[in-house]
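job 3f2a | input accepted
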Amino acid sequence: MGQPCRVGIVGCGVISGVYLTTIAQLDTLELAGVADLNQSRAEAVGREYGVPAMGLDEIISSPDVDLILNLTIPAAHAEVALRAIAAGKSVYGEKPLAATTADAAKIIEAAAAANVLVGCAPDTVLGTGIQTARRAIDDGLIGTPIAATATMVTPGHERWHANPDFYYQPGGGPLLDMGPYYVSALVTMLGPVRSVIGAATHTRPVRTIGSGPRAGETVPVDVDTHVTGVLVHESGALSTLLMSFDVIASNASRIEVHGDLASMIVPDPNHFDGDVLLHPFDADHWRTLQPSAGYVDAGRGYGVADLALTAPGTEPRAGGRLAYHVLDVMESLLESVASGAAVTVASSCDRPAPVELSTTPGSSSETGQRRPHAPSA
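job 3f2a | predicted structure (377 res):
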């Protein structure tokens, strides 16, 4: 496989911890440096992992960095990604790809022109949960897919999050916060979406913080906190989506997929593994499918390693075009909420290549043999 891909992390907040753990565990990745607007935070991470703490310009231009892992806030995703691409580096970012599809399109276009790769969370779709479900569909175990349901409900993040303001401001809300996990899983299993129709509401004008130093403080609610919609896939399958910060509890499966031969329960797409349950037409019970595809015991950052091994001319599995389409689907759904009419999704994408059952990226025969582009001399 050659030398490991040298990763420079931009953004050393809470989410960086799981990525740092994964990078340390995978032979295909090597941490080369870190950067953060809070220099002391970057220096603390650098000392812990034995790498230099750099400024943004320095890490992007460094010849010792092959790929930028963009863990900044969503509003900064496009700026950091475009600067990395301009320096000839591939980039992998946290969800969403950008704050808007307009900015996301600039990233995709710039990467294509620079001949570098773009990847984006969630990479949970690469684990055994979603991949085993996809394999069951591809192998015909449910017959022709007819419909799916995706349900994510919670009373609200303010109950546990010390600074939940973002979730209730434009750019937040249950759809944009959690929707990428569910829509990415639905597109991975059933293919791209051609149109959507939605409705939404919110129940309270303010939310009360339940923990931390701001406990008891209220934050305004400026977004819809209960969003539902129907996604019409290009295949003809219909997915019903329910994303809510207003629902106390539910026994509904996170995702169900129904075909003309069987129904299937799919595990939580916010996790990498979990049981896939199948109920054939002629059976009287659910049975658990053994993991048949996906990275075993995967964690956040496997998408970075998968991208690092992507063959030339091939889209990464947790790739930019998938992330762009998912963002387009969500924006279109919110547009439908505002207009009350169905909205055609302008973009499309290919279903990502399946992941054979394997322990780590690079251990399966279908992965490529290259590192992302290094900066040009």
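job 3f2a | The first helix runs from residue 16 to 25.
job 3f2a | closed
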